[in-house]
Amino acid sequence: MEWAQLPIPQFGAFGVLLSVLWLVFRGHLVPRSHVEDLRSDRDARVAEANEDAEQWRALYVGECEAHDLTRRAHAEEIRAALLASTEGAQIAAALLKELRTQIGAGS
Fold it and tell me: Alpha-carbon distance 68 to 74, whole Å?
């Protein structure tokens, strides 16, 4: 049986009342105040989630800046160590060259 074949006009006001009660009991028809309460609750949760997201974003940006500072400080430390090592190697090479020239001049 299809919906078009139902004798809906014969139900009249009683049919409308039964339909409304059926919608209410199924939860498809709710009072406006209930819907407004749900919407305000949802809006409050969305606002709270946005505030949390902003706090986490600020923490993330701060952590990225701190990590960048640490990375640059580490790179500077490595560069200074490499410069000191290079300078020590240059001094050692100059001393060895000087020793070779003194040994070669003494022979």
Answer: 10
Query: pLDDT at residue 1 above 60?
Result: no
pLDDT(81) > 80? yes
User: What is d(CA 52, CA 14) in angstroms, rounded to the nearest whole number?
Assistant: 52
Per-residue tokens: 46: 């969305």
Q: Do the Cβ atoms of 29 and 20 come closer than 8 Å?
A: yes
pTM of the shown model = 0.51
The predicted structure's pLDDT at residue 6: 66
Residue 91 neighbours by CB under 8 Å, 6+ apart: none
CA distance 71 to 96: 37
Please give the structure tokens belonging to residue 72.
């640059």
